[in-house]
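Case study 2.
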Amino acid sequence: MDSTFARKKHIHFFTRILQILPNRYSMLDTSRLTVTFFALSGLDILGALDTLTDTNKQEIIDWIYSLQVIPNRSKSNLGKCGFRGSTSNGVTTQQYVKVTDSANAYDSSHIAMTYTGLACLLILGDDLRLVNKYACLQGIKALQLPDGSFKSTYDGSENDMRFIYCACCVCSILDDFSAIDQNAATSFMLKALSYDGAFGQGQDQESHGGSTFCACASLHLMGRLHKTLSKKKMKRLLHWCVNRQCKGFHGRAHKDDDTCYSFWIGASLRLLGQYDLVEFKENESFILSTQDVIVGGFGKWPQMHPDALHSYMGICGLALMGLYNLDPIEPALNITLRAKTHMDSVHEKWRELHKQKQLVTERSRQRTKSGSTIDRTHTGTVVLAFVLGLGTIIVPWIYKTYTGAS
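Prediction:
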């Protein structure tokens, strides 16, 4: 174990992930977008995004947009819209194309890829102007099941707490929760509360650190966390989370500590407003014991090879504690506060644009109404003039005729 935080090594590790991956990552070919998220957000937390040139960043942005599943002309594939994880199905979306002439029957978004794709765009400073918001939201809406949970893809998959979280993140980033039946989703999460106070992946399932974070973050993003959980439920949940720390954190009772749970459990405690209950020194010591000081990154356990997920979560766990001058993170969305601030500025621009459109529409409506009034007035004036003019001709004729007759 080396107790020194190997910042430069970790920067090299995440940078290398964006360039080349070892053969063992081939199983993640359909999830390249999520691996990219781990690398980009890891560099962001390390304050090292500038190690990427502007050209590198734009290339990644263009690649992400090439993964956007866009609607066809008949909009029959709206339920499949969002972002795919890679081009492994042979489909690539051409840049700036908003509608496709036909849809590949096997081309479908994945809810986790839509979340991480949008998050990557925010991290890179993109303004999301090329995102088809309507199509993405329709894609999210199509994935919610009657019990309130979400499946990951249109054609079907497992459904659990993870995908409720992804749906909430997408709606938060797009600033529109209309795609989610929040009451149904909340009901599903409450049913997933286990006997020991934390959340499982679904009803009657074992409490788990990952699903507990997903539930807490989802409720937080919907503005329902403290409204949904009573004081008693909150106390039991806190008790469960705090008891997941041995040295680092583990995700289930009687399991070994694991690097990633320093974030999953730590972020849950942060969202619950009780992060001060964490034993910082013990947690820091465990996370550093899993870092690889030769190639960089973090493993699941000490003496294990580093991987993208645990390396990112290890960095997040340290950032939650405010250590090593790491950029602070927004725990619910799992991005830096810097990226969250950028997201807020994008939302503000959208709202301003919406106000301008409403103003233009209102002015147009008023002009139409005013024009209609003017037309009616003009018509009345013409008729009156015609009648008066006619009167000046007919009245003298009648008088003359009448007088002559006498």
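The mean pLDDT is 92.
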